[in-house]
Specification:
This protein is an alpha+beta fold and about 550 residues long. It is built from 16 helices and 17 strands. Strands 6, 7, 8, 9, 10, 11 and 12 form a 7-stranded antiparallel β-sheet that branches. Strands 1-5-4-3-2 form a 5-stranded mixed β-sheet. Strands 14-15-13-16-17 form a 5-stranded mixed β-sheet, sandwiched between helices. Helix 2 (about 65-75) links the parallel strand 3 and strand 4 (about 80-85). Belongs to the CdaR family.
């Protein structure tokens, strides 16, 4: 839709004009037309103009026609029209030669033609072209806007864009992963130029053209026109046109500009929708694990987002320890949450579909058990947990992951119990120095923890252990810890002394003191069992809620 020098020579009296020089630049784009009778007006041109002159006041004020033509070409003048018969009978040979040399079309206009007879029809044509361009711009904009309103999304935008410009279209995210493509064979490419060799097409919007190679098309090379999609001064996507069929025209850049704006709006819409969905899902999950929701309400909310909560589930809770080194700023925290969520989801997807809720220091997963018994479900969760820990050990070596698994919740109302069990499993795992703990595998510890839900566990701490606790508190000693290490080492005083880094006689003295204060007979099996259970209860009092 641009008008060229060749086009204007088909307008009005210019049909009779002669193109004497610079014929190879007859496709120069024309943006305006003006009369020039003062030499220094060239300094004020912006490019794309056709200049009209009779050489009046020009030939006597310049040193060289050649230098004058060269200067016009440098200022990207589209053409020079010289009227003969008034000042000069014929166009000087120096001008014609310079026109060919510097690529500036030189047009001879007859003496009977007035400048106004040339300017008006050319200006009218330029005006009509601009009006047509604006109309086309609006039509394209309306068309793309309708696509977004109709919910066609990125796929619809790229499909219509391909129809308009006749080349494959791909929309990539900021990591150059294809979000929509009209031809999958051109989504994968390799660059054959560095960034300094790219052809810059637009200073304002940073469009550029680059040469690439396509492995899926027998490594043929073609050019891409790349339009970065910016939001809040950040590039969030790329609109890419592969010029595999034809090179884009100027009018098609108008289409791309419209498309980039609509893509940006579509991405904003997607983000807004995903953010609402994320909050809705998080609120539903939080309600489920808290138990503060009616079953009917939970099922109704779940159906809105396509969740089926009627099957059995268990809660998998992961807590990230020692992560402060990786979360020094808001951006790092956001990146961490995004990476953790993506990694965990990808691993779990190998085993089952799931629902996940994540924060900066923990996450929990609503894991469908699909009618399986507890053992195979826990086995799958353990495998997934090991994979996740291995993946993060490479990038976050200082971070440790504790994983707790709750019992299978047959009904929605039991999900909160499964969450509490997963939480308790993690706390018990820390006592036992275990990174992965399933509540169903805790044995006696599980029984004690469940007992603590409906009872005050302090009632079950034997008098012997309470006596040691009271003595330690009043005398600032640590006999309870000594006794715990002694039992852990199967009542072996030598091993206990080594673990506590104290002399063997010192451990014998402490053990005698423990017997005296607690009244425990170390050789009595009943006393030992009661003491061991008492120590476990003391530990659980710090964890069970």
């Amino acid at each position: 839709m641009e008008i060229t020098v060749r086009d204007i020579m088909e307008i009005g009296p210019l049909r009779e004009a002669k193109l004497l020089a610079g014929k190879h630049r007859a496709d120069n784009i024309v943006k305006g037309i003006t009369i020039i009778e003062v030499p220094d007006i060239v300094d004020w041109l912006s490019g794309g103009e056709i200049l009209l002159t009779s050489l009046y006041n020009v030939r006597n004020e310049i040193m060289s026609f050649r230098d004058y033509i060269r200067k016009m070409a440098q200022r990207e003048v589209s053409a020079l029209i010289i009227k003969t018969g008034r000042v000069v009978e014929e166009i000087p040979l120096e001008i014609i030669q310079a026109g060919d040399e510097f690529g500036l079309p030189i047009i001879e206009l007859g003496r009977e033609v007035k400048f106004v007879d040339v300017m008006y029809p050319v200006m009218a044509e330029l005006f009509n072209k601009e009006v047509s361009k604006l109309q086309y711009y609006k039509q394209v904009q309306d068309h793309f806007t309708e696509l977004v309103i109709a919910g066609e999304g990125l796929e619809g935008i790229s499909r219509v864009l391909e129809e308009l410009i006749g080349n494959p279209v791909i929309i990539y995210d900021k990591e150059y992963k294809a979000m929509a493509a009209t031809d999958p064979s051109v989504t994968t490419f390799g660059e054959v130029q560095d960034s300094t060799q790219r052809e810059n097409l637009n200073e304002k919007f940073y469009y550029y053209r680059q040469e690439v190679v396509f492995p899926d098309l027998n490594n043929i090379t073609a050019t891409q026109v790349v339009i970065p999609i910016q939001q809040l001064n950040q590039i969030n996507a790329y609109l890419v046109v592969v010029e595999i069929n034809k090179r884009l025209t100027d009018i098609e850049y108008i289409i791309l500009e419209n498309a980039s704006t609509v893509i940006s709006l579509e991405l904003v819409k997607r983000f807004a929708i995903s953010e609402v969905e994320r909050r809705f899902k998080n609120d539903l999950l939080d309600s489920l694990i808290s138990g503060n929701i009616l079953i009917e309400t939970a099922l109704e909310r779940a159906s809105i987002i396509g969740w089926d909560l009627k099957g059995p589930y268990c809660i998998v809770l992961m807590e990230f320890l020692d992560i402060n080194d990786y979360l020094t700023g808001k951006k790092q925290r956001t990146n961490f949450i995004t990476e953790v969520g993506s990694t965990v989801a990808n691993v779990i997807n190998e085993y089952t579909k799931h629902f996940m809720r994540i924060s900066s220091d923990s996450l929990y997963v609503l894991w469908p058990t699909q009618g399986k018994s507890e053992a195979p479900v826990v086995a799958d969760i353990r495998k997934a947990s090991l994979k996740i820990s291995a993946l993060f050990a490479k990038k976050y070596p200082k971070m440790h992951i504790s994983t707790g698994v709750g019992s299978i919740a047959v009904n929605i109302k039991d999900i909160s119990d499964s969450y509490r069990e997963a939480k308790n499993a993690i706390n018990i795992g820390r006592i036992m120095n275990e990174a992965f703990i399933s509540f169903s595998e805790l044995g006696i510890m599980r029984m004690l923890c469940q007992l603590g839900v409906t009872n005050d566990l302090t009632e079950f701490v034997p008098k012997s252990i309470n006596n040691l606790i009271l003595y330690d508190r009043e005398n600032k000693t640590n006999l309870l810890n000594t006794f715990e290490v002694f039992l852990k080492n199967n009542s072996n005083a030598t091993h206990t002394a080594k673990e506590l880094f104290i002399h063997y006689k010192t451990i014998l003295y402490r053990l005698e003191k423990i017997r005296e204060i607690s009244g425990i007979d170390f050789s009595n099996h009943k006393d030992r069992l009661e003491a061991e259970l008492g120590l476990k209860i003391v530990s659980l009092l710090k964890t069970c809620k």
